[in-house]
Amino acid sequence: MCNKKAAGIASVITGVVLVIVGIIVGLVLPNTVQKAIEEEVCVNNQESPGYKRWEGPIEITTKVYIWNITNRDDFLNKKEKPKLKEIGPYIYSTKSKKVGVKFESGKVTSTSFDQAKFNKTLTKKECPKCNENDKVTILNSAYLVLMQRFGSAKDFSTALIPYALRIWISTLNYQNMGNQNSTYLQMGQENSSLEAAFGSSAGKTFSQIEMRGLYEALMDTSKFGPFLNPSLLKKCTDISMPYISIECGLVINLGILANNSQNVSSSVMNIIHDILCPNNGSCFNATYNNSLLVAGFVKHALPNFVMKYLEGQNYGLTTSRDQSDISLGYVMSNLKLPPSGSGIPVPGIVTSHASESQAKTTKKNTTFYTCESSMEKRFSYAAIGGETNVYPKASKERLKVHGYYTQFPGQESLKPCTTTYSKLSPSYQIFLPQLLLAIPLTYKKDARVHGIPTHKYMLGDNALKVNNVTVFTRGIFDVSRLFRGPLYVSLPGFFHADKSLHKELNLPSPQQNKHSSFLKIEPISGTAIQLKLRIQMNGVITSESLLESFQGHNVSYEKKFIPIWWTETSAGIDEETAKEFNSKVFGSLKLACSLLIAFPLIGGILVVIGIVFIVIAVKNRAHIAMA
Q: What is the pLDDT of residues 170-190, one digit of tens each?
């Protein structure tokens, strides 16, 4: 009897302990898991457990699709609309690592050091006929930006006259075995067949001394005009306050002469003479009539010569070059303009740095709020390149750098028997630093990635409605201020845009599975474990992009969006990492659930058994006492 009672008491105590332990472990273990996850995603300093994962490198895959112009000549010369053919994908694999990391006041600043390589294996799987150096023809975004930078094709072709002439005359001197006198003599012949010969343009013959005086002035930027000095150029061209000076250069003073031919001041004529006739060995006879001939030469013939030079160097309205140049970038080496004087770099579609130092000097850094900031700010963008605002004329909401990228707020507490959680927000603002643009992604549905429950967020059509701030045409984001040229971003194939845009160019109807953008967020950690960002770059030919008198162009497809290329950038968790995540997170939660259920259940059974033993022992003792 004593043994039964003792056993019963022991059973009750054990059962109670198991119930308590089960409840405690079942409730504490999820909090331990949640704390471990937070330590992994909260990178507050270089000693944080998740720092190495955050720093990288990470693997990013970019698929490049080119909108190849198949009727280049007819498009440029016969007023035809461009015929576009999508080719690709050309696939690039990028390793991206954060460098120049600095933690300060609840923020972390870093720069991405990206190294991209053409992935021949993946490319051949998706596009067997695609090769890294395939020749493609596209609308030249670099040309469009250059024309706007200078104000117009007219302004550009005028400003570039000294540079184009220097290259051309240097070539002629080489052909004449260094005999400059022979070169200048050819330039002054009335029947000269040379492209930029003044003699043939003026319809009369000039001496080599006169041509030396003229062309040396035309090739000397300090004498030609202040076209790369905005403040002086503005002063020299201010009609309300005329500024007549030799520092305004030859072209502007020739313009004053041509526009005021009936009442030209002697000071203007003297300036023109001083520029064109600096000494007896280099002296153009700057009579009134001769000066008017030079004015017409500079206004019409030479800008055409410059545009023809641009076309000849493959820098014109369209460009035909290797796909790798378009994807990784190239240098317009024969267009040496200040301040570098070493050619104009054209960025590629895919960013790739030669070194960490290049990344730090050429790419803007990004600043994020860390977990030491408030719950509302953590993981979101704080600044780009040290600036917290993007555009000077936008509304306060769109002016500010804001939004997330791949890390979002996660669950603040976990439940032991729950592996799926409701979405924390119906939408998120995603900030794209390369476009200085925040776009809203809206919850679409629950989805699984390698067995991990996620919430799928997509860029919906509501995000591309006209808002008169960043979207002025449905489906088109205006990024012209960022690129300083008529360039615009959309989803590929004009997905979610006005249907007339793809119909106008006879493009296939865009499809959601190929042309939409989305990310999938694991709700416990708040990490986007799968991302596909699809972007299309479009250009617009404006009247300022074309030189009206240029005989090499007869383009009519103006003020309409022309696709240039589109990309699909993807990153995500692999199957092996997904298994590890499942094991650590969901395995621990399942264990907590098991303990929460099993220990109290077993404990409860032991308590019941113990009570039964105690009751039996007490009854037996009562029977003995009665006997």
A: 888 777 766 788 888 999 999
* Angle formed at CA 406 by CA 40 and CA 369, multiple of 5 degrees: 70
If you search the block for the tokens 């596009």, which residue do you land on? 127
Cα 131 to Cα 66, 71, 87, 89, 123: the distances in Å are 13, 22, 11, 10, 8
Tell me the C-alpha distance between 504 and 561, whole Å.
10
CA trace torsion 568, 573, 574, 578 (10° rounding)? -150
Q: How many C-beta atoms surround the C-beta of residue 446 within 10 A?
A: 15
Measured torsion, CA atoms of residues 227, 230, 232, 233, in degrees rounded to the nearest 10:
50
Residue 227, pLDDT > 90, answer no
> Residue 174 has what pLDDT?
75
What phi and psi, each to the nearest 5 degrees, are found at residue 540? -130, 125
Residue type, 543: S
Of 99, 623, 547, nearest to 306 (Cα)? 547
Nearest Cα residue to 348 out of 142, 129, 59, 72: 142
Single-letter amino acid, residue 292: L
Q: How far apart are CA 422 and CA 448, in angstroms?
A: 14
Asked if 553 contacts 76 with a C-beta cutoff of 8 angstroms, the reply is: yes
DSSP-assigned states of every residue in 420-453? ----S-SEEEEEETTTTEEEEEEEEEEEEETTEE
Please report, as a single letter, which amino acid is at residue 567. Answer: T
204: amino acid identity, one letter: K
Cross-strand bridge partners of residue 94: 60, 116
Q: List the one residue out of 540, 536, 542, 543 whose CA is nearest residue 561.
A: 540
Largest CA-CA distance found in the chain, in angstroms, rounded: 150
Residue 260: what are its φ and ψ, rounded to 5°?
Answer: -130, 45
Residues ≥6 apart with Cβ < 8 Å to 368: 107, 108, 379, 380, 381, 382
- Give CA–CA dist 241/237, Å, rounded: 9
Residues in the chain: 627
Peptide bond into 226 cis (omega under 30): no
Query: What does pLDDT average to over the chain?
Result: 84
Give the whole-angstrom CA distance, residue 432 versus residue 381: 10
State the distance between the two ends of the chain, measured CA to CA, in whole angstroms. Answer: 16
Chain segment 561-594, per-residue pLDDT in tens: 999 999 999 988 888 877 777 666 655 555 555 5
Which of 248, 203, 227, 221 has its CA nearest to residue 151? 227
